[in-house]
Design brief:
This protein has about 200 residues and is mainly β. It folds into two domains: about 20-130, Deoxyuridine 5'-Triphosphate Nucleotidohydrolase, Chain A; about 135-204, no CATH class. The chain is built from two helices and eleven strands. The strands form four sheets. Strands 2-11-6-8 form a four-stranded antiparallel beta sheet, with no helix packed on it. The longest helix has 7 residues, at about 75-85. The radius of gyration is 22 Å and the shape is globular. It starts with 17 loop residues before the first strand and ends in a 7-residue tail after the last helix. The structure holds deoxyuridine-5'-triphosphate (DUT). Deoxyuridine-5'-triphosphate (DUT) binds near residues 92, 93 and 105. Deoxyuridine-5'-triphosphate binds near residues 73, 89 and 98. Belongs to the dUTPase family. Pathway: Pyrimidine metabolism; dUMP biosynthesis; dUMP from dCTP (dUTP route): step 2/2. This is Deoxyuridine 5'-triphosphate nucleotidohydrolase. Its cofactor is Mg(2+).
Length: about 200
């Protein structure tokens, strides 16, 4: 079934996403396999990326998602593993209200090889998901949790003989040095700057 066939209703349990081809000769979005999470997005134009270069590439597609959904532009693992090509902003977020052409922000992370992708090449994949819209409620204290403020490697890093679950002996939270202004326990809940940065209005 064509992904853009307007006469075929969505089967039960499947969300209907309206698709407009801004470039009618291009394919997509197409699920390569029935159980794939992502539908392939293709390049609307040729693009050549030297080592470290990036480009915003059109896909020839615009969509209308139902309210309560978003679509996420993810890299393709084959392009990433074979050529080092991924997305600068992975995953890119396509809002339900966005009606413009979906674009892909590609980057060539390879240090020496230039890659040329051709119009019609599959450059990314689109994952449609239900998303919650939160009500952000400001509080003075957050409820306790097992993790607490530990993060950024607090469970022991990446080695198989990790120290996961071993409490630090220095009385710290185990997360090592503070990482940026937003990593502290008070950020987000107590600091005025954090509130402003989070867009939380006083009294909201
Ligand atoms: O990889 C992406 C990411 C975003 N978009 C489109 C859809 C999305 O709804 C819109 C805005 O994206 P985002 O909110 O990430 O951009 P922003 O930098 O916050 O810009 P804006 O001020 O327009 O929201 O751009 C894409 O086509 N591809």
């Amino acid at each position: 079934m064509s992904a853009t066939d307007p006469t075929t209703p969505a089967p039960p349990g499947r969300v209907e996403v309206l698709v407009r081809r801004t470039d009618p000769r291009l394919a997509g979005p197409v699920y390569a396999q029935p159980s794939d999470a992502g539908a392939d997005l293709v390049a609307a134009s040729d693009v050549t990326l030297g080592p470290g270069e990036r480009a915003v590439v059109g896909t020839g597609l615009a969509i209308a998602l139902p309210e309560g959904y978003a679509a996420f532009v993810h890299p393709r693992s084959g392009l990433a593993a074979r050529y080092g090509v991924t997305l600068v902003n992975a995953p890119g977020t396509v809002d339900a209200g966005y009606r413009g052409e979906i674009k892909v922000v590609l980057i060539n992370t390879d240090r020496s090889e230039t890659i040329t992708l051709r119009r019609g090449d599959r450059i990314a994949q689109l994952v449609v998901q239900r998303v919650e819209h939160a009500v952000f409620r400001e509080v003075a204290e957050l409820p306790d949790s097992v993790r607490g403020v530990g993060g950024f490697g607090s469970t022991g890093g990446f080695g198989s003989g990790s120290t996961a679950g071993v409490a630090p002996t220095d009385g710290s939270d185990g997360s090592g040095a503070e990482v940026g202004a937003g990593a502290g326990a008070g950020a987000g809940a107590a600091g005025a700057t954090g509130r402003e940065a989070a867009g939380v209005r006083p009294g909201a």
